[in-house]
Design goal:
Helix 6 crosses helix 7. Helix content is 46%, strand content 12%. Strand 2, helix 5 and strand 3 form a beta-alpha-beta unit. It has seven helices and three strands.
């Protein structure tokens, strides 16, 4: 039996369906909440916010974030191809203002390429504090077999199985970390 997922939000069950609900992706739940808010600011696509670092590059994204798209007034039955382009409003770090002005044509071209049509004609800058971008977490490699064996040998005298297992995992990572540091420090 198909479930209705249109309009974002969690899938809706048909009346009388007593089956257990299934987990839903966070993106599908937030779509119905975030898109109206972005649309009120002229940002019709959530991807412009979500993919901002990929669109303009990490260097520009660190100092500039999209705030709003200001659309010019449009007359009745106007051909979209003849309409005046919109203005993309960016919040920028004050120290980056001059560089942002020089990068504006590149940002306009990249945003238009992402959106698929020439909708942005210029950029307006608003200086102010930026929301911090989260840095991707570094994934620690799994410990080597030799480090696991060495740690297991050292933790053997511990009677509690859970504690011994936890200390073995911790010890194996510490042993490998020390080996990596020693290799980096060698001339």
């Amino acid at each position: 039996m198909a479930r209705d997922v249109s309009g974002g939000g969690a899938p809706k069950k048909p009346p009388g369906d007593k089956s257990r609900s299934r987990p839903a992706q966070v993106g599908s739940l937030l779509k119905g909440i975030v898109e109206p808010t972005l649309a009120a600011r002229g940002l019709g696509q959530m991807s412009l916010i979500a993919d901002w670092p990929a669109i303009v590059g990490a260097d520009v994204a660190r100092y500039a974030q999209p705030v709003q798209i200001q659309w010019p007034p449009r007359g009745d039955k106007q051909n979209p191809a003849e309409a005046a382009p919109a203005t993309l409003v960016l919040r920028i770090d004050p120290a980056f203002a001059l560089e942002a002005q020089h990068a504006a044509p590149i940002v306009v071209a990249r945003v238009n390429a992402h959106l698929g049509w020439r909708c942005i004609g210029r950029i307006a800058f608003r200086q102010g504090p930026l929301a911090q971008l989260q840095k991707p977490r570094r994934v620690t490699p799994a410990p080597s077999d030799a480090a696991r064996q060495r740690a297991a040998t050292l933790a053997e005298p511990i009677a509690d199985d859970e504690l011994r297992g936890a200390l073995t995992r911790l010890g194996a990572r510490a042993i490998d970390r020390d080996k990596r540091r020693a290799r980096r420090e060698e001339p």
